[in-house]
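Need the bound structure for acetoacetyl-coenzyme A, inputs here:
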Amino acid sequence: MTQQKTVAWVTGGTGGIGTAICRGLADAGYQVLAGYNNPEKARTWLETQRTDGYDSIDILGVDLTSYEACQNGVNEAREKYGPISVLVNCAGITRDGTLKKMSPDQWNEVIDTNLNSVFNTCRSVIESMLEENYGRIVNISSINGRKGQFGQVNYSAAKAGMHGLTMALAQETATKGITVNTVSPGYIATDMIMKIPEKVREAIRETIPMKRYGTPEEIARLVAFLADRDNGFITGANIDINGGQFMG
Ligand code: CAA
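Answer from helper R.:
Posting the output first, comments after.
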């Protein structure tokens, strides 16, 4: 074991929002393990973090859609750094299309990556969190799990499901020093948003009262707040962070 810092695992850590979350948690003193999907991109990404002085960030490559792979990844991480005390479920994909055109593959890929993965990761860390009597789980959902979104029955279902899991698990762990919360970002300036056709994207931006996209750093600040050891009384909550686009 190389260090004694509290260990945080951020799935989707090399992505747009994930990168800011990793850096925010590293700034707050955690040993961060960034989950990734693309090994080549992850290596380059890690070099950038190191060049920028983030020595307490490492990468952890796990196929989140596989329960066994998650368990193995968590065991490897524990041997190297100690038990994972903070889990941020930030991995997510879109396969947009209206239902009448959506293939079963588009549905299944999104449910597997965005929702089944959350069972796999939470299940893989929960026993050690219970043993330690301490844990912080933050599920990164979406405004579109709150209000639905044209062209996203798959994504909206997965993201709404995520918060159901949050509320149930929060009850199961409430007396065990573990908090479980959902963060629901609106449209944040990342590559995922840039994939939306420009005309559609601009129309969406017009519906945001603040008339701008959010920044990954704005999400990261909220995640670091929820992950804080001293922040032990917020659990089962959903926190919207969307520039006023949806007020539920
Ligand atoms: N509400 C109602 N009608 C709409 C609509 C809306 N929001 N958007 C489009 N339509 C209408 C169109 O006007 C069009 O109508 P006509 O046929 O009468 O002209 C019809 O629906 C078809 O629309 P498109 O031309 O857009 O159809 P398409 O097949 O080319 O594209 C789509 C469908 C891929 C879903 C496209 O609309 C799209 O990309 N939408 C954006 C989806 C979106 O917001 N994704 C978010 C990704 S980012 C993310 O998910 C992160 C996060 O958490 C926020």
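Comments: Residues 7-241 form a domain with the Rossmann fold fold (CATH 3.40.50.720). The chain has a mean pLDDT of 97.
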